[in-house]
Design brief:
By secondary structure, the chain is α+β, with helices and mostly antiparallel strands. The chain has helices at residues 14-23, 76-97; strands at 30-35, 40-46, 55-57, 64-65, 100-106, 112-118.
């Protein structure tokens, strides 16, 4: 039986953030405080390629703070891709914790199909 799932991502898992950064060939995330254009934010700092300011993740609330000045200081597609890969890595981690096997397929439209199968 197959099921289609839509995920609204809250970024709370440090291991999945690390896995997403590794997969996207980004610097390892670090805990800290970042100065955004007109404010500060504390949490897990992720530096996306060619972004002026880091993305700041509060792993307690799952909220993501960033300032890309409507795309002028960073391509929003990079953040979208990071969140997509985070969700994939988080789903894979949780499935494997429960003993499931996972296969992944990249689709032509940019989406990712995960198949999670109960181990026998």
């Amino acid at each position: 039986m197959s099921h289609i799932v839509t995920i609204a991502t809250k970024v709370k898992d440090h291991s999945a953030v690390l896995a997403a950064c590794q997969r996207l060939e980004l610097s390892e995330p670090v805990h800290g405080t970042a100065t955004l254009f007109s404010s500060e934010a504390s949490g897990l700092l992720v530096k996306l390629s060619e972004w002026v300011y880091p993305v700041v993740i509060d792993t307690v609330t799952g909220q993501v703070a960033y300032d890309n000045f409507e795309g002028s200081w960073g391509d929003p597609k990079q953040l979208d891709r990071f969140l997509q890969i985070y969700a994939v890595e988080k789903a894979k981690l949780e499935a494997r914790k429960k003993g499931y096997s996972v296969s992944e397929q990249s689709l032509n439209d940019g989406s990712i199909k995960l198949q999670i199968i109960e181990a026998r």
